[in-house]
Amino acid sequence: MKNRILKALASFGLSVCVLAGSSVVSMAEETPGKTECKEHTWKTTTEYKTECVETTFQHKLPDGTTETLTLCPECGKVKNNTQLTKVNGVFSNFSNLTVHTGTLKNGEQVMTAAFYYPTVIERVICEKCGTVKSEEVTPARVMAQPVIASIEVPANTISGYSLMQINADGTETPVSVSYNTELNKAYFRLDVTTGAQLLRMVPTT
């Protein structure tokens, strides 16, 4: 009898030790200590940031003087002047086309059109410890290559106006516009070779 009790106690004690050991191991697995990577696992991440791209235009006023406008074609902010409003519902044969309209402090109604690309940050980073192996940054920019864009905007954006594209030397080129009244759409083609474009909206009535 005595031997059986001792064996039972010994067996119980062993079980307790095993359970206690299992508990410690489990806790250690659930809350591992922070260690440095012995072998990195690399992955490439891409981040996009919206940042202003200041673009300068030389704009001839009706009195013959020249006005310099510096604005961002992405946010529509005109430096030391006013804030243009982004036009929704714009479509083009090129992606990332942004159109803004508004009235300058001198009373001129204008439109801007530009292909805008945000800042792109590409990093090669370790999934385990977060170590950055390399980083490449492509700054925000507008397209600047030979391009004729086909643009569609809501008709009420430009109805009642004729569009005059302002060239680099301040001269103006008329822009031909067609309308689809059933769809409430206006269509025009625009030379955007030099990047962001500035157009004067001339009232027709």
From TrEMBL:
<protein>
    <submittedName>
        <fullName>Uncharacterized protein</fullName>
    </submittedName>
</protein>
